[in-house]
Amino acid sequence: MAEVIRMPKMSDTMIEGVIANWLKKEGDVIKSGDIIAEVETDKATMELENYEDGTLLYIGVKVGEAVPVDGIIAIVGTPGEDYSSLLAGAPAAPAAAVEARAPTAAPVAAAPVAPTVDLSSIPAKAVRMPKMSDTMVEGVIAKWLKQVGDVVKSGDIIAEVETDKATMELENYEDGTILYIGAKEGEGVIVDGIIMIVGEPGTDFQPLLQQASAPAAPAPAPVAVAASAPVKEAPKASEVKASPSGIQADSKGGIIKASPLAKALAKEKNINLNWLQGTGDGGRITKSDVENYKPNAGGATGNFISGEESFEDIPNSQMRKTIARRLSESKFSAPEFYLTMEINMDKAMGARVSMNEVLPVKISFNDMVIKAVALSLVKHPKVNSYWMEDRIRVNKHVHIGMAVAVEDGLLVPVIRFASEKSIAQISAEAKELGGKAKNKQLQPKDWEGNTFTVSNLGMFGIDQFTSIINSPESCILAVGGIKETVGVKNGQFYATNIMKLTLTCDHRVVDGATGAAFLLTLKQYLEDPIKMFI
């Protein structure tokens, strides 16, 4: 009888494991005690031991893909044995993701599984969407580099995929001919969803789509509604013909293809379908084409009012979706409070001028803030902590996340071990990471592991603001701009420069006194920068 091999929990903090290397393949005979794979956990790369005797009938995870703890990774049994019921009963996390993306509708029954088909006998393999970052839920096909009919080998780059962090290359792990591509450019595919099938030419691959544990096709990507569609010159009334059945025909007598809803809407708006350029399949006119039609001046519809309502729907990028999801989770789960402190930047401004005269890189005020924050976190480790539901993790190392605004939203590259680096090293690394973020060249090692985040909007003229905590961190610092103002000392007015810092704290970890003590230390470093270097 076939048995399922699931992902074990290999550490106390492990949520999922990544298959680093398969040491066995489908069809191999294995025994209890055999090492079948290497698994990368949150702590280390470890060997995965098998506890079932039999033939490896099914491998459901490819190298580089992540599997949640207790998720199915393989099935062992007797050659030719039907194991489809084991997959059908598995938790269908990908299906839930698709359901969340779909329009509201009546529940759809799951497609029946054909129990008589032995998938292992089909000379083709499904290529699935890998999990390319720790927060990735789906990937969007930015560009296909191969097409149906191409011969591909393991290691070939087959596509470019837009994740929530960056656009990355998708590597193929199957040898053969591309028989099927399941997603067009611009469409989203959930993690573990089928994106293509590779095998021998002429193979009937439909059973792979029908019996896949993940959905066979990606959920439709949101469709952008153009602000204005290309229009044809409005024809003369004598050029418009009608077919005997009442379906409108074009000037050459051909029947115009349009959806019933488009026809009804065009009739309601008194728009002739000949004036429209269809954007649907085969030039079919859709409801959106009618809604977005703009008449030419002096044309057949020249009596229309020109002040028409218009809009453009822009599909959310993977980055924007993830920002929304993660910050919503943080905002509505963490009991936040805010502490604001004014910093006198007179000495810091003088110190910056002096440093830029001798250092090989130009030091910014943000570099000085990051250095001061890193040193302050060493003295106040509670602020450098994670909330982990059943415990608080106090981080002994200091990895500063640096919020960077990009076209699609916000990225947070990480300056690692910031407390141990010189201000010149911090400056050089910040410039490099900022450039990579704006060019979508960041890799997972560049954005993972931050223990505290700094968000600076001072360069945009913002005096003061609050930031949302980047979970599971306990705090985030919002940095405003330096503003020249009037101070009073001993009854005398004088010009001075003030910068406002606002610390957002998770009250489950950091209380008011702890947050205030951290800000006081930070104030001492910035108001007298020499203290950062002694």
Automatic annotation (TrEMBL):
Keywords, alphabetical: Acyltransferase, Lipoyl, Pyruvate, Transferase
Query: What EC number(s) does its UniProt record assign?
Result: 2.3.1.-
Source taxon at top rank: Bacteria
Q: Name one Pfam family in it.
A: Biotin_lipoyl
Per UniProt, residues of the Lipoyl-binding domain are 2-77, 124-199
* Species of origin: Aquirufa beregesia
InterPro entries the UniProt entry points to = 2-oxoA_DH_lipoyl-BS, 2-oxoacid_DH_actylTfrase, Biotin_lipoyl, CAT-like_dom_sf, E2/Pdx1, E3-bd_dom_sf, PSBD, Single_hybrid_motif
Q: What is this protein called?
A: Dihydrolipoamide acetyltransferase component of pyruvate dehydrogenase complex
Which family does the similarity line name? Answer: Belongs to the 2-oxoacid dehydrogenase family.
| Start and end residues of each Peripheral subunit-binding (PSBD) domain | 257-294
Q: Where is the signal peptide?
A: none
What cofactor is this protein dependent on?
(R)-lipoate
Ranges that cross the membrane = none
